[in-house]
């Protein structure tokens, strides 16, 4: 459920919903922290432009439209409509959440290996960094259809954990894991460059992983 995205400063009683309907902030497409062509040759500029300005933008626009409809249904007490809108909230909200993480997980200065506490945790939970790469690559390549491969943090267990999510299902809402690193394996993320050879795309993306960003997410998740 993605209600946390819906009314960030509102309660679910009728009068506040009516007030929020007019004043709530809409979701916006985040700027990329680099140019569309900055990740070449690993991910081409045309892919990045379409992925960000078209696909992610569509999730944001559809999420805003769906939230408006959801707010109206709340104000009217229309439970049937609220229930019918849940899949669209999950899909478009998940798409917005996932991509907002994904862009920051990548960097033209990325690649190599993590260091510090993150590397220590990787060695503790996976044995070696190479084993993490091998296992996460296999999970990502093995997603049936469209979806994501994730490295997450299990706060209850205090450990790193891998998971795959179908479509745009958000990692935390689906598994309870806090997302640290995601690999988008929807075809729109790679097809123009890698055609149907998903393993080549997954292999290449390790060259542009922003380990500083992943480490920041790891440190925040532990608090």
Account of the 3D structure:
The protein is mostly helical and 223 residues long. The chain has 2 domains: 45-105, Helix Hairpins (Orthogonal Bundle), CATH 1.10.287.990; 116-222, minor pseudopilin epsh fold (3-Layer(bab) Sandwich), CATH 3.55.40.20. The chain contains 9 helices and 3 strands, in the order αααααββαβααα. It has helices spanning 14-23, 45-76, 79-105, 116-126, 129-141, 171-175, 191-194, 198-205, 211-222, and strands at residues 147-154, 159-166, 178-184. Strands 2-1-3 form a 3-stranded antiparallel beta sheet. A hairpin with a 4-residue loop joins β1 and β2 (159-166). Mean pLDDT is 91; it is low at 1-22. It is an enzyme of class 1 (oxidoreductase). This is Superoxide dismutase. Its EC number is 1.15.1.1.
Salient structural properties:
223 residues, mainly alpha, Helix Hairpins, minor pseudopilin epsh fold, 2 domains, three-stranded antiparallel sheet, 9 helices, 3 strands, globular, disordered N terminus, Mn/Fe_SOD_N, oxidoreductase
Class of the largest domain in CATH? Alpha Beta
Total discrete domains? 2
Distance between the termini: 24 Å
The SSE order reads HHHHHEEHEHHH
Subunit structure: Homotetramer.
Function: Destroys radicals which are normally produced within the cells and which are toxic to biological systems. Destroys superoxide anion radicals which are normally produced within the cells and which are toxic to biological systems.
Domain Manganese/iron superoxide dismutase C-terminal: 114-217
Family: Belongs to the iron/manganese superoxide dismutase family.
């Amino acid at each position: 459920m993605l209600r946390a995205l819906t009314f960030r400063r509102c309660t679910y009683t009728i009068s506040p919903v009516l007030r929020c309907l007019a004043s709530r902030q809409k979701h916006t497409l985040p700027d990329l922290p680099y140019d569309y062509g900055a990740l070449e040759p690993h991910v081409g500029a045309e892919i990045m432009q379409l992925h960000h300005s078209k696909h992610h933008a569509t999730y944001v626009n559809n999420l805003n439209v769906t939230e408006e409809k959801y707010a109206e249904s709340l104000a009217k007490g229309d439970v049937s409509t609220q229930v019918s809108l849940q899949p669209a909230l999950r899909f478009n909200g998940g798409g917005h959440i996932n991509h907002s993480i994904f862009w920051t997980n990548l960097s033209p200065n990325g690649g190599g290996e993590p260091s510090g506490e993150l590397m220590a945790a990787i060695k503790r939970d996976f044995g070696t960094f190479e084993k993490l790469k091998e296992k996460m690559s296999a999970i990502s390549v093995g997603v049936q259809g469209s979806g994501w491969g994730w490295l997450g943090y299990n706060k209850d267990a205090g450990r790193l954990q891998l998971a795959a999510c179908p479509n745009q299902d958000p990692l935390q809402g689906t598994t309870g894991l806090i997302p640290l690193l995601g690999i988008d394996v929807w075809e729109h993320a790679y097809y123009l460059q890698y055609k149907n050879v998903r393993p080549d795309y997954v292999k290449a993306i390790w060259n542009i992983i922003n380990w500083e960003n992943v480490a920041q997410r790891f440190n925040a998740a532990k608090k």
